[in-house]
Write a structure and sequence with these properties.
This protein is α+β, with helices and mostly antiparallel strands. The protein is 20% helix and 16% strand. The N and C termini lie far apart (61 Å).
């Protein structure tokens, strides 16, 4: 059965949907209806909207299980699968028709988050990498900084992934597994059951909000957590917080202003981990793929030649855009020694010294000035404390982002400084100039249920300032002072 998002009156049905299964295991579309055996039996669409797209015009029980027709809601929901696209089930549901894509997606970086998980764990003492986020250990007792980092990952950081339905703010709620991208959610609710072949940017922003790549594409910079910084205010004294915390509206990326969506650059080959080419390597988009296009156009991008011009057609709206070729002499001068974002990023996220505290104490009053932290669970705990509605002796809890299991303690977050600024420039392993941000400028603390400080501001190990190379999505014309960013090329180093 489909999840209900608009109730109807229960109507007696006269139809029974007959489902057939192909030898490949992929179900056929709905066949002609057959008369129901009893006058009191109802089908799924007697209660739920029938708003599937043509490609997925299947019987409800094909993916959701349950019984159809049935004489009651209880009978209809027997064996119901509420989240058939969840990672634990998607091989048996989505994989029946999309087996190859499902297998690739399950090992794709967007699915495993291995890079992010291992970066944090390594900074706090891990010596062996993990293959995926589900391998992050669960600790009932915190005995080391790495244990603390694992708990941080599972309960504070790992909420934007395919095992989770997201946070409970209006624009951070989504489906799980394949549905996280391919079903549309808005204002915290499922819009319909029409699967999007090319996910809209709003779906991407259900995870890529806050001060992370994606939000910057639309020029958004999250406010600080103190109430005096979180404007604008509304007539009732509150403020709109669709992503948990208000944001400054800065200049969007030039590609966003032109009408390009996320999937126009980041297609299925990258996001779903589909190999390409003779070496069966994963395709990664780069600026040069479009702006220095060779004889063979890159795969997965809607590019074509029209005379001497290169035309990109957007996937969502079919808008045609002329791709400008590189023309400034600086490109030939600096070549591959400088990444494009060094000159073309308009601004970058430069949040300094992120401080994270696990707090098991029942007394939240010392932290009551910062109840809004981009976590609905933390906010709920603070509201209960301030309203005096928490049960006597009850400790604050926060759920595991992977298993949804509650555990004692909540994670609070703060910053020494939040700002957008001229990008920090560093060098990668190949000696190229790159944009960096202080992603590993972290410290972890832990106060237990007895108000004892177990760990106090344990700093992450890593590069100076915690600076890690990243790709800001704030592209525009190179500014008047872009050459100042190039001064870090060492004397005698060939550009």
């Amino acid at each position: 059965m489909r999840p209900s998002f608009r109730n109807r009156h229960l109507l007696p049905t006269l139809l029974l949907l007959a489902l057939a299964t192909l030898s490949s295991g992929c179900p056929q579309k709905k066949k002609a209806p057959v008369a129901a055996t009893t006058a009191t039996a109802t089908t799924c669409t007697g209660c739920h909207d029938d708003t599937l797209d043509r490609a997925h015009d299947l019987g409800c029980t094909t993916c959701h299980g349950g019984v159809e027709p049935a004489a009651s809601q209880e009978a209809a929901h027997a064996g119901l699968i509420a989240q058939p696209a969840h990672p634990d089930r998607m091989a048996a549901t989505c994989g029946r028709c999309h087996g190859e894509l499902e297998r690739h997606a399950a090992g794709a970086p967007h699915f495993t988050l291995a890079k992010e998980v291992n970066m944090v764990r390594r900074a706090f003492g891990a010596t062996k990498p993990l293959a995926r986020l589900t391998e992050v250990p669960v600790h009932t007792k915190i005995n080391s900084p790495l244990d603390l980092a694992d708990d941080l990952l599972r309960r504070r950081c790992l909420r934007c992934h395919l095992y989770s339905k997201g946070d409970a703010y209006p624009e951070t709620t989504r489906g799980t597994g394949c549905a996280a991208c391919h079903l549309e959610y808005h204002e915290g609710k499922l819009v319909n059951h029409r699967f999007q072949r090319h996910p809209a940017d709003r779906s991407c922003l259900h995870c890529h909000y806050g001060n992370f790549a994606g939000a910057d594409y639309y020029g958004r910079f999250e406010h600080d957590f103190g109430a005096e910084f979180r404007t604008p205010y509304t007539a009732n004294g509150g403020s709109k917080r669709p992503y948990g915390v208000e944001y400054h509206q800065l200049v969007p990326d030039i590609h966003a202003k032109a009408g390009m969506g996320c999937v126009d650059c980041h297609g299925s080959r990258e996001i779903m981990g589909v190999p390409h080419g003779p070496g069966q390597t994963l395709f990664r988009i780069s600026c040069e793929d479009c702006h220095v296009a060779g004889a063979v156009l890159p795969p997965g991008l809607n590019l074509k030649r029209s005379g001497t011009a290169l035309i990109l057609t957007t996937k969502a709206e079919g808008k045609q855009l002329v791709v400008p070729p590189l023309s400034d002499p600086a490109h030939a001068t600096y070549g591959k020694k400088v990444t494009c974002t060094v000159c073309h990023a308009q601004w970058a996220y430069n949040d300094e010294h992120t401080q994270l505290l696990r707090l098991d104490s029942q007394d939240l009053n010392p932290w009551s000035l910062f109840p809004v932290q981009g976590s609905f669970e933390v906010e709920t705990e603070f509201n209960a404390e301030l309203a005096g509605t928490r049960a006597e002796g009850a400790a604050p809890t926060m759920r595991d982002g992977i298993t949804d299991t509650p555990a004692p303690g909540i994670w609070l977050k703060g910053y020494y400084l939040r700002r957008w600024d001229t990008p920090y420039i560093g060098q990668d392993a190949a000696g190229r100039l790159v944009v960096t941000r202080p992603l590993l400028d972290l410290s972890l603390s832990y106060v237990d249920s007895e108000n004892q400080v177990r760990f106090d501001a344990v700093r992450a190990a890593g590069p100076a300032g915690g600076l890690i190379a990243y790709t800001p999505h704030t592209i525009g014309k190179a500014g008047a002072f872009f050459r100042q960013r190039l001064r870090q090329i060492k004397p005698g180093q060939q550009p």
